[in-house]
Specification:
Blueprint (H helix, E strand, L loop, with lengths): L17 H8 L7 H13 L3 H21 L4 E5 L9 H6 L6 E6 L2 H5 L1 H5 L5 E5 L5 H5 L2 H6 L7 E5 L11 H10 L6 E7 L6 H15 L7 H6 L5 E2 L11 E2 L8 H4 L7 E7 L25
Parallel strand pairs: 1-2, 1-4, 2-3, 4-5
Antiparallel strand pairs: 5-8, 6-8, 7-8
The chain binds S-adenosylmethionine.
S-adenosylmethionine (SAM) binds next to helix 1 and helix 3.
Amino acid sequence: MAETLQAPAGVDPARPSSARIYDYLLGGANNFEADRAAAGRLAQRIPEVADTAWANRGFHQRAAKWIAEQGVRQFIDIGSGLPTVGNTHEVVRRVAPDARVVYVDNDPIVLAHSAELIGDDKTAVVIIADLREPDAILENPRLQELIDPGEPTGLLMTAVLHFISDASKPRALLARYVAALADGSYLALSHRTFDHKPTAAMRTLAEVGEQAAGGSHYRSKDEIRAFFDGLELVPPYQGAEPDVSWVGLWGCEDPALADSEGSRWLYCGVARKNGLTRQPWYPIRLPGAPPDEARQD
Ligand SMILES: C[S@@+](CC[C@H](N)C(=O)[O-])C[C@H]1O[C@@H](n2cnc3c(N)ncnc32)[C@H](O)[C@@H]1O
């Protein structure tokens, strides 16, 4: 296929990237031959790989919309990826037209295409940065212009932490971001897993991940659940226990219909920081109530 896309500065079109492979799997046009070849390699070994991308993207969109429905008006989308249909600012603004969104990604191609994504909209910005540098991201003046630290934030980290090795301490990195958020904020996270997967498929994914992102780090359900420690997970769908689930199931109406091979490559969850629904460990004393020692109950 003749290349119509120009490689922006800092982008090597001969080397596949996770952002552009994902874009290709979602039917986007911001990708090069090397990305399409890598996606083809994946599809040979994992025929459901495009369904996996769609299942994850669907989770991202449902979770962002749901968080906006809880009253959240500002979002930080880390590892945001390339413009596709239904970007975060478009999705949340269907609920709250005044919602502000900060996109963060380490692939310069994301910035190159941000003009078409957000135009001259001043309430959505793209920052090119590595999530392994949380202080630089949280202190970025463009983020600080849009995100009020005193107000609840929707922190979206979907399909990105599996690019972070244990040596980079992904739980500590996540904790740093969560610590910066006000009570009532939400985290939406999805993450690839190798649970119950065939060895040959895992090997191909690991090889492509190495080429496209310098490594991929698949984790078990327990390890992914641990990313939510200290937060209050919400049930993924009506009638379910609060827990992580396959991406296709989160926010679904019928779990039997939403289940698919593709969905079962990523676990996900949405959790609240200091949820109001949880009873505080300390006794609540209402104004005018007698002190504890004087109470008869
Ligand atoms: C599979 S895409 C996910 C896009 C989007 N979050 C979603 O779930 O639809 C992963 C994105 O994470 C970005 N990424 C990978 N490692 C990163 C890092 N260390 N810092 C920031 N972004 C990163 C990639 O460039 C890519 O755009």
